[in-house]
Amino acid sequence: MAETPNIKPGFWQHNTSLSLQGPFNMPPQVTTDQECVTQADIDKGVDVLDLPPGCSLTHYNIRRDSADYSMKCDIQGMRADFTGKLNFHGDTMNGSMSSDVETPMGVMTMLMQTEARRLRDC
Fold first, then answer.
1. Is the Cβ–Cβ distance between 26 and 59 less than 8 Å?
2. In the chain, where are the structural domains located?
3. Suppose 108 and one of 21, 22, 49, 76 were both cysteines; which one would form an S-S bond, judging by CB atoms 3.0 to 4.6 Å apart?
């Protein structure tokens, strides 16, 4: 049974950096998102994850201070296996995810780093 993550409900900001390495490199692309996270969202555990279309979880282990997960995806006909880890610190969290993707141009390594912080109540 999964533990409840150490995440405080509130209005959160997520900064995510995505880069590709392989036959051609893509410098990190940074995005910022904000969302209201409620206690009901936190209580959903893994069901709170908004998986991209074509992806499914193959493993997850949620603990109070961290979570490990893996998923398989079909991205425009290319299969990819992702592994990731999140660390929960109450008002902040961070994590990383990586994957090697077989493409017509060769293997591309996708790296994602994320940092989030609670800004205020919703």
1. no
2. 10-120
3. 22
